[in-house]
Design brief:
It contains 4 helices and no strands. By secondary structure, the chain is mainly α. It has a domain of about 70 residues. Helix 2 crosses helix 4.
Length: about 100
């Protein structure tokens, strides 16, 4: 379980949001370019039928070819993980 998932569970159980979940968090400088790349890719994603379409490997490859970016395999993995987290967060939650 990730730290964030644990803290969210604490918040759900206690009704109090841990300080670690409140406010803005600083983006590590070493990963700023990956975040910028994700924002570029996300802004040009194809529409999905009922939700956001995932950023595909083909999308990343075409973007890299057009922009001259040369993401490593680790950075491609990070882009995909950011996309998964973004789409999960943006997916409407069912009402209870």
């Amino acid at each position: 379980m990730s730290l964030r998932a644990h803290l969210e569970q604490v918040a759900k159980s206690t009704g109090e949001v841990p300080a670690e979940l409140v406010g803005e968090h600083e983006l590590p400088e070493a990963l700023a370019h990956v975040w910028e790349w994700f924002c570029e890719l996300s802004n040009s994603r194809a529409p999905g039928a009922f939700s956001l379409a995932p950023i595909s490997y083909q999308d990343i490859e075409a973007w890299a070819r057009l922009t001259g970016a040369q993401p490593t395999s680790v950075e491609v993995g990070l882009l995909r993980q950011l996309d998964d987290a973004f789409r999960l967060e943006m997916t409407p939650k069912p009402k209870k």
